[in-house]
Amino acid sequence: MLVIVIWAVAIAAAIVAGLQILSFRQAVLGSDAIARVQARWAARAGVETMIAIMEYHTENPDPDDALALILDLQDNSYGTLETGTYDIRHFLDGIENAGPLDEHSKANINLLSTTELMNVEDMTPDVVGAIVDWRDTNEDAGMLGAEKTYYQNRGKSYEPRNASFRNFAELELVAGVWPESTRGEDWNLDGRLDPNEDDGEETWPEDNHDGILDAGLSGLLTASSLTSPRAASGEDRLNLVTAKSEEVVERLGLTEPQTSALLAYAKTPNARLEQLLVLPLSTLSQGGTSAAGGANPIGGAGAATGGKNSAGSSAQGRTGRSSSGNSGATGGITQAGPGNLDSATIGKVMNECTLKEFTRPEPGKMNVNTVSGRVLKEVFDMNPKLVDSLLSRRDAKVTGLTSLAAVLDIPGMTPQILSSLATKLDVQSFVFTISCRGRSITVGGESEMVVTVDRSTLPAQILMYREP
After folding, report:
1. Bond before 459 cis per omega within 30 degrees
2. pLDDT tens digits, one per residue of 122-180
3. What ranges do the domains of the chain cover?
4. pTM of the model
5. Which of 24, 340, 373, 374 could be 335's S-S partner, Cβ–Cβ 3.0 to 4.6 Å?
6. Domain 104-222 adopts which CATH fold?
């Protein structure tokens, strides 16, 4: 009988011990599950905070402060909640920055020419040809390109889009493009330096363990930046082709002669607002053309040394004045004559107006206030000294550059160079990628959200959402 009692006690003890172990494991699993939920909602709170700030600045823009949105996003990039915290940051040009990544700080692959694509490090002619064939609208393969039949013959289940890239990751579908090139160390494309991306050869991917994120092509290129109908003032851009005189006077504060000349120029063939940086409005309205002849003078050493400019024009050609008989005091921006514009007004015209009807978003320009210096030097082959001068000017201004017309006087800049830059640069950003990491206060569990947001519309639109 005693033996039976002892066995019963032993069995009961084993059952109790097993129940305790099971209960402990269940408690741990429950605690982990709660921590994951807390971390995920903390990350969600960070994303919602960023979107709310973007929408506020879209609805209440400050045209005199180009950095108001950027700084507001940075100031709120870290937050503490009752059950967790969130942290938002990104790498650009090897530097870690607080806040979301401005997609307009990189070059949009849908806008790059063949020459500009070839400037990108490690790009080869066959890859460039395949990229161009992927985004063009025809089925004719270039000399080294790849169209539909190329992918079919290799058993691929897809074919070229024959339209703009929708996101950066789509680049990896192009013939000859490898993830190692597009992603570098940033294997999950979150723009952050994760522990496994900074531990040498311990875990995938391979990295050099230097505390700096090498993001490969994703650090230079984007497919997400977009144009917007919104001007710097928050109103829709004024189409000068169809605008009435009174609308221009009220919106821009121009005189009647200036308004007449501006509207006359808007209706001329091949009119471009960037030409206001090169020639007086009175000349343009009468059909005058640029002395640069439409050449692209932003690349090469000559473009920024103050000597010969790369368009091949003389000192007189750089001012754009000699052929018109008009003389400007500041080499092309201060325009003499009752119908001409000063630099501030030119900047306002470029910020507020357009020469075509906005029908749908198109690939966007880079923001001069956030653009990567590496992009300007490498992709667009700009003179390094000119790039450094440009970045120094923007960094020295508390409000950033509110107009491209404000940088003509920096060393090496000419009206022709600035006019060419204006086709690629703007002073606004509309698309941001939020890489938000939430952390539970109780256990320390983490959750990450990567969300790309277009703030040009109200409410803001989520273009991409994922949880790496």
Report:
1. yes
2. 899 999 999 999 999 999 998 899 999 999 999 999 999 999 999 999 999 999 999 99
3. 2-103+430-466, 104-222, 238-426
4. 0.86
5. 340
6. Ribonucleotide Reductase Protein R1; domain 1 (1.10.40)
Q: Which two tokens stand for residue 58?
A: 């879209």
